[in-house]
Amino acid sequence: MNILKHSSNLLYKRIVHVFFIIILLFFLIFMTLGCDVIKSIAEQSSENPQEEITSIESENIDGPIEESNDINPEEVTEEKELEQVEEEIQTPEEYSIDINVYYIDEQAEFIVGEQRIITGIYTTDFIEAAFNELLKEPTTENIFSIIPMGTEILSSEFVDKIAFLNLNSDFVDNKWENGLIDNLVINSIASTMLEIPEVDGVLFNVDGDKLNNYGSLDISNPVFSCNIFNGVSIVCQ
């Protein structure tokens, strides 16, 4: 009886020992696997910190983007209208005016006007456009251009209602050797320039230098065209 009891106690102790060993093994395995998992997560976190930051920033950005969708269409329309008004103010538009361009008759006694339409933005645009029209041949019969051959307008200015014409040297070098024609040349130019609104007189430069005399004519002061009557124009100062 005692032998059986002793044997059963011994068997019970062995079973407990085996059970304890099994539990210990499971615990060790769990701890080993757990450490490996934690270590792997830590390594991944340390390798890709920027991805986490980017992900957080993108999540933060999503909020304001959604809020910006709430735009009032009326405000957008008003802003566009203001931009259009500013552009119109900053960029003047071209416009056209009707003028007479003055030529001489076939007897070289009178100047005769022929209508033209010129386009520009600033007064200097109209000054140069009018002079270039004067260089063209007239369309009306029996009237002629007497601007010296090769004459060109190099530039112009408009100051205190005076048109400053800067012509090339052909205007002087190729001039007519006739005092009456000189008078008509200056008259035709001055009368044409005075067709432009706000222009009250004309001064002449040649290659940038002031022209004081044209033949026997003193043109050192602004030239005005006064008293156009029956196509006749008289130079006055």
Overall description:
The chain has helices at 2-47, 49-68, 73-90, 123-135, 170-173, 179-193, and strands at 95-105, 111-120, 143-144, 153-159, 162-167, 201-206, 209-210, 213-214, 217-218, 224-229, 232-236. It has 237 residues and is α+β, with helices and mostly antiparallel strands. The strands form four sheets. Strands 4-5-6-7 form a four-stranded mixed sheet. A hairpin with a 2-residue loop joins strand 6 and strand 7.
Number of helices: 6
The domain tally reads 2
The side-by-side strand order for the widest beta sheet comes to: 4-5-6-7
Number of DSSP strand runs:
11
Radius of gyration, whole Å:
50 Å
Instruction: Tell me the fraction of residues in β-strands, as a range.
Output: 15-25%
Percent of residues in helices: 40-55%
Shape: rod-shaped
CA-CA gap between termini = 159 Å
Order of helices and strands: HHHEEHEEEHHEEEEEE
Write the layout of secondary structure elements.
Layout: H1 2-47, H2 49-68, H3 73-90, E1 95-105, E2 111-120, H4 123-135, E3 143-144, E4 153-159, E5 162-167, H5 170-173, H6 179-193, E6 201-206, E7 209-210, E8 213-214, E9 217-218, E10 224-229, E11 232-236
Parallel strand pairs: 5-6
Antiparallel strand pairs: 1-2, 1-3, 4-5, 6-7, 8-9, 10-11
Helix pairs in contact: 4-6
Question: Summary?
Answer:
With 237 residues, the chain is of the alpha+beta class. The protein is 49% helix and 25% strand.
